[in-house]
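Shift notes (night). Ran Alanine racemase domain protein while the centrifuge was going.
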Amino acid sequence: MAYLNLYRDKLKSNFEFLKKEFNTYEVSWGVVSKILCGNRMYLQELIDMGAREIHDSRISNLAKVKELNPDVQTVYIKPPSKRNLGDVVRYADVSLNSELNTIRWISEEAVKQNKSHKIIIMVETGDLREGVMGDHLLDFYAKVFDLPNLEIIGLGTNLNCLNGVLPSADKLIQLSLYKQIIELKFNKKIPWVSAGTSVTIPLMLRKQLPKGVNHFRIGETLYFGVDLVEEKTIEGMHDNVFELFAEIIEMQEKPLLPTGTLASNPQGEILEIDESLYGKSSYRAILDLGLLDVDPKYLLPDDGAFEILGASSDMIIINLGENPKKYKVGDLIKFQLKYMGALAILNSSYIEKRVV
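Came back to this:
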């Protein structure tokens, strides 16, 4: 059976590294937990290591956080849908919003539940995902800042999440200026400029973060130690918090090319034949996980001596060549994971999750 390891000491080390850097720059931050897909054991690890603000895009995951520790501040990080506003107010202390009617509905729901709910207004800064256009922001704020049972605690933005637009000092300064203009015009304080995600960390480490930016929402760099701009591991951080282990369930020497009439496979692909491979063979292994669990393109083999040939719904096929390491049925193959691979594995109910 395939399984995923989370290494507690490496996650804790990454957490402490980031905590120290954010303290240096007097920036508050929360941990984005959506990659954990609501796994209670892993959420508990975050809480135990000191996370006191947890962000997620699934309200059911925030409900689990509140069950584990009601004192953790929970943040819902995508525009809420009308049909789940009751749970958003119930389980999220803060939500990110960019729709006027949604904020009004949240206010009504908060009154109904006799709760106070905090709002971060998301602002469009170029990546064209969620966010109010800047030239509409003052009018937008005017219509929501005094709604009952709501507190507007921040302006936020997302970059690099859809079209790959990178954060820059200019973009973040503009967001800080919006905050200053609103505070002057409405005589209201807005505590947060929540402009930082993992892709913004390199700006901070290069001492290029505008002073007005004072809140980050961090996921990928915590779990993978990655500088998302230069696509390399940040010195002092770990890139192998997660490791996937898959068992070999068949090992045979077989031809390199299939025989018979070729049609498209279940993924709609048609194999291109390399005629130079006719008559050649290699050792092929089948692993006990497949496309139901993860797309193989997000797997990073720990052993460079083999290649991934393809996958079906519940099996991955690898080419071991002459099998110099003498792999056999029952042996484990180890993979590191790209972010989207880890997300898929953690969302799979068929993969055992462990803490080491």
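The chain has a mean pLDDT of 95. Residues 242-355 form a domain with the Elongation Factor Tu (Ef-tu); domain 3 fold (CATH 2.40.30).
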